[in-house]
Design a protein that fits this description.
alpha+beta, nine-stranded mixed sheet, four-stranded antiparallel sheet, 4 helices, 15% helix
């Protein structure tokens, strides 16, 4: 008897089924990739915005901190805040202590601030300053900083050293007195606080100390130090010194680094920097503050600059960028800095526009000098580190602030690529000018 076996039938994927499955998988992968790409781009955009926002806040915060210290140590109004440059032309640079050049971004502003900015102030009393001759700025001055001044102010902990001891290079030092001196502005004579700035040679063993005293010598006849005084003429002798400290001379500017990017399509990553003057070399110690800064602009709130009667304040609540002299802010419209703030060339850098010259003054009873500068308006523009080709929102093609002539990196003549940007402005009331 013949037995018939059952033949098994094996089935597999047909070609059509395989193609359909492959298409589904490819579609699914493409969808996931698109979702991931979209998520990645969104995350990058949010990161760019967050970084720009954080940077512009940090930059404004640091600028405000420095500017608020202007004139600390009793420096004269016209020696403490200086419009170093307005709409910087291409090719201008600052040299650091290593001899390298740092080019200032074209069209931005540069602000010079002087005062006891980064160090401590020290209390003095009569007897803490002695001189080889008269203490009228014509001879060496020997200063003794006591751990606890005779007035009871604690300068530093007994048995330790003041922070001043860490200085390893020559520096300027200011001694403020309770007496007054006269200064001539235009044809008027004013009374201003008496102070002397001298150079200290911080090299080797430049000071002596005991458990409660710190003593060193400064030279008030140093030409650069005299440039920080209120006047180059002879002044009264110190009577009751009460305050002292190391003077910092700082230029705030947008640093493009060692290559001048003016007038070409080279993209750079500018940095808001502080250039601290080094008296020993005439160069600057340059410290970066915030990266990716595209523009830095300054306007000066000057009481009565618009022709109104000075009222010890700034009438306008915000700058007016529409027409020159429409408000009391100088530097918000093209040309105002040069026309409204003439800089003296009589041996001392002195912005005469910062003194309220409407107050009558003259011998034998000079008036107390009244500062006309009431506020500093700071504007900062920060861009993202990388361009965003698809972005067309606010700031994509650049942000124009005040009287700026800086060219945006999104300009067709530069990169033609859009960047995400954030701008912040802040009006700094000059507390040391009151």
């Amino acid at each position: 008897m013949r037995t018939r076996g059952r033949v098994g039938v094996q089935r597999g994927f047909a070609l059509v089924e395989a193609l359909v499955a492959t298409a589904l998988v490819v579609g699914l992968v493409a969808g996931i990739y698109g979702l991931l790409d979209s998520s990645s781009r969104l995350a990058k955009q949010e990161t760019s915005v967050a970084e720009a926002q954080q940077s512009v806040r940090a930059g404004i915060g640091e600028l405000v901190r420095i500017v608020r210290q202007a004139r600390a140590g009793q420096l004269f109004y016209a020696s403490a805040i200086l419009p170093e440059a307005n709409n910087v032309p291409g090719g201008r640079s600052i040299t650091d202590t290593a001899g390298a050049r740092h080019f200032i971004r074209q069209g931005t502003d540069a602000l010079r601030v002087r005062g006891v900015l980064f160090g401590d102030e020290y209390a003095l009393t009569s007897g803490d300053v002695t001189c080889s001759g008269g203490c009228d700025g014509t001879s060496l001055m020997t200063i003794t900083i006591r751990a606890t001044a005779n007035s009871g102010v604690v300068n530093y902990a007994s048995g330790s050293l003041p922070t001043l001891a860490s200085k390893a290079r020559p520096f300027f030092f200011v001694i403020a007195d309770s007496a007054s001196q006269t200064v001539t502005v235009g044809s008027s004579i004013y009374l201003v606080p008496l102070y002397y700035v001298g150079r200290v040679e911080a090299a080797g063993t430049w000071y002596t100390r005991t458990a409660d005293t710190f003593t060193f010598t400064m030279n008030p006849q140093d030409p650069a130090a005299r440039g920080l005084n209120a006047t180059t003429s002879g002044s009264p002798a110190l009577q009751k010194p009460f305050l002292s400290g190391a003077v910092d001379d700082v230029v705030l500017f947008v640093d493009e680094g060692p290559t001048d990017a003016s007038g070409n399509a080279r993209d750079t990553h500018p940095v808001l920097s502080a250039a601290i003057s080094d008296p020993s070399s005439g160069a600057f110690e340059i410290s970066p503050l915030v990266g990716e800064v595209e523009d830095f602009q300054v306007a000066y709130g000057i009481d009565g600059a618009d022709g109104s009667i000075p009222d010890r304040g700034i009438s306008a609540s915000a700058v007016d960028v529409a027409s020159p002299n429409a408000d009391e802010w100088v530097g918000d419209v093209a040309g105002e800095v040069e026309t409204m703030l003439p800089v003296s060339t009589s041996g001392i850098t002195q912005v005469q526009g910062f003194i309220d010259r409407s107050i009558s003054s003259g011998p034998p009873n000079p008036s107390l000098a009244t500062p006309a500068l009431r506020s500093i308006w700071l504007s900062l523009v920060v861009k993202s580190a990388e361009p965003d080709a698809r972005y067309r929102g606010p700031g994509a093609s650049g942000i124009r602030t005040l009287d700026s002539t800086a060219v945006s990196f999104s300009s067709p003549s530069v990169t033609g690529q859009a960047y995400r940007r954030r701008m912040q402005s802040f009006s700094v009331a000059m507390r040391n000018y009151q």
